[in-house]
Amino acid sequence: MNPEDRAGFFARTQDLNLDDYLLLDYRFECSGDPELAAAHLCSEQSTAQWQRVGVDEDLRPQFAAKVLELEVIATQDEYSYPIPSTGNGRISVCQVRIAHPHGNFGPRLPNLLSAIVGEGPFFTPGIGLIRLEDIQFPETFLQHFQGPQFGIAGIRRALDAYDRPIFFGVIKPNIGLPPDAFADIAREAWLGGLDIAKDDEMLADPDWSPLAKRCASLGQVCREVAEQTGRPKWYLANITDEVDRLCDLHDVAVECGAGALLVNALPVGLSAVRMLRRHAQVPLMAHFPMIASFARLAHFGIHSRVLTRLQRLAGYDVVIMPGFGPRMMTPEQEVMDCVRACSEPMGPIKPCLPVPGGSDSAATLPGVYAKMGTVDFGFVPGRGVFAHPDGPHAGAASLLQAWAQIRGE
Amino acid sequence: MNPEDRAGFFARTQDLNLDDYLLLDYRFECSGDPELAAAHLCSEQSTAQWQRVGVDEDLRPQFAAKVLELEVIATQDEYSYPIPSTGNGRISVCQVRIAHPHGNFGPRLPNLLSAIVGEGPFFTPGIGLIRLEDIQFPETFLQHFQGPQFGIAGIRRALDAYDRPIFFGVIKPNIGLPPDAFADIAREAWLGGLDIAKDDEMLADPDWSPLAKRCASLGQVCREVAEQTGRPKWYLANITDEVDRLCDLHDVAVECGAGALLVNALPVGLSAVRMLRRHAQVPLMAHFPMIASFARLAHFGIHSRVLTRLQRLAGYDVVIMPGFGPRMMTPEQEVMDCVRACSEPMGPIKPCLPVPGGSDSAATLPGVYAKMGTVDFGFVPGRGVFAHPDGPHAGAASLLQAWAQIRGE
């Protein structure tokens, strides 16, 4: 790419109509000239070949992704992780902000993903390692999406739960119990004080616990406990399944009394979630399988905050994410980036409830609350409630006790 | 986990009915005892808590994932990539084969993914880095899937193309041309000898090139060229879009004369592909956006061969994958692993056509053919055809000339 060609992939912010562009922040490591690498990064994710042979045209003004800012933040002798065949010489570590014209594909999640984390960014000449760090959408793009139906405010109203976290519990044993036994332990935990007893993200619609039968059992018990305690209670059913079953399973689960539904975002795909959102009568909650496979490492893949934003955009009311503590192997900064992505301004899209999870119990509640600095979160122990030595009732009660203590009550 | 508990996550192959299990090969790096880490790896991906408090039961015989083989292949001072909070001490590099009971979730792709690359494997205590290296399915699982409808043999029959690779070309400029101009350059390439002129994986259904209009133009031209040359020709339309549009776009495209359809596997989700497969009247072709984000690194994420197997299982007739050469940053061994995954025995599931792609042209055909060692592959240049200095007709013809030369004709 000669210098003149390269210039077609650079622009000044003030020269663009930002309504037409997504803003993408990548960190990349390259061998060779960083400006050339950044130009290729734009070219590969948009107008790879911007003119026909023998035709005097340039498709880039409208269709090219364009570098707005490029900074070399470090140089080093080697790539941060060993990778195959990436050229020689010193490595430049760069941050780049790119304006990507969303009119190239329109307000469609699969096409968005194909452009921003597809072949373009991950196979750009000269760039051996790259991570999509963040994304911003203009309102012209956001207005095509529904986002969360209920959001934090809607969930609080429905659960009549204010000025405190929402207390979830993952019913355990998660795999192997028949519906009635499963309902019995959920009953105890609801009676102990849980707002929401939930299916594990791996418990779906197997023959030893068919979703319809499980929802019938748990829906019935949930109604009984709500009546008995005078408190709203939700059973959160996991309807993660093949995408052409999602709407039917929604109907079955809601009919039986599920108050909210869990759908594993990446395994079904964000687009399937968006489809379900159009149909949904109850809040949708995301779980995070697969995300770590591309979000764990600091210098390669996709920052989990990007996935949080996309889950919110797809219509989730609640996003469960890897939380604090060594077991979840997620830096505190990253957890907080994801938490903030749930509530940061996003045009007409409502905030969703963040649920940082992982090996929690009454003992970890004060620390999580301190880090969150707000009551707007969900707390989701599993074994911390259901393996409590005195049983699930005591496990759930221990959360409320811990909260009362935090509040000095 | 005490030694007795640990034993519940180990088994001997001869003691299991392998019809009931998927076989999963992981490579992992752990601090601490490798046997304990492997037991946790099984526990976390299946029966995390295998008994109720106060109940004398053990759900593991039926529901636990179980270690069949464990080998420590190296020890080292540090993890291969720096990661947050992973304990102290020497790191063991391990290979493990796990039998995972598929009855935990049934023959459903989203639930399969949630188990094998979900929270379990990526958040196992003690395991800082892990990669799913391979998967094998028993026929009892495979029999629930359709797999490819046409497969390699069906594609050859329809294209009347035997004893040679199938010649694809990615129409370029990929983004920005209106349908009629796009059809004009496709015409040249078909006349030059391409079997299949295809949309770029980023070209979908935008207002400047609506799919229906594009398919009408290219379908018409494709029929004209087929008649003129007496050779079957396909237009491969990219219908990647929101999942609830896939079947409708299939109908529109096929009605207009698209001979095959491209769908980006991970962006729409494998389950949506499986849904489309049930509906499809023409071959389905996969492209690879997103896969590199978890498959690039040797010691973390998911080996791309696993994705090849899953794409075949979901029903793709053709799988485009990162091919040979430095630009694609994929070791030759890995390309060949993916190629083999297209044709290795898989019960009732037909072979699919591998298309290793990336910056190809007539000049790279001999090398690719030599590496493949078979004619059963697709060859997919983009700029190698459509940026040929003498135009797309000459670009396409150059492929056939290169092939004739290889065959000494």
From TrEMBL, chains A, B:
GO terms for molecular function: magnesium ion binding; ribulose-bisphosphate carboxylase activity. Residues 151-404 form the Ribulose bisphosphate carboxylase large subunit C-terminal domain. Residues 25-140 form the Ribulose bisphosphate carboxylase large subunit ferrodoxin-like N-terminal domain. GO terms for biological process: carbon fixation. PANTHER family: RIBULOSE BISPHOSPHATE CARBOXYLASE (PTHR42704), RIBULOSE BISPHOSPHATE CARBOXYLASE LARGE CHAIN (PTHR42704:SF17). Belongs to the RuBisCO large chain family. This is Ribulose-bisphosphate carboxylase large chain. The lineage of its organism: Bacteria, Pseudomonadati, Pseudomonadota, Gammaproteobacteria, Chromatiales.
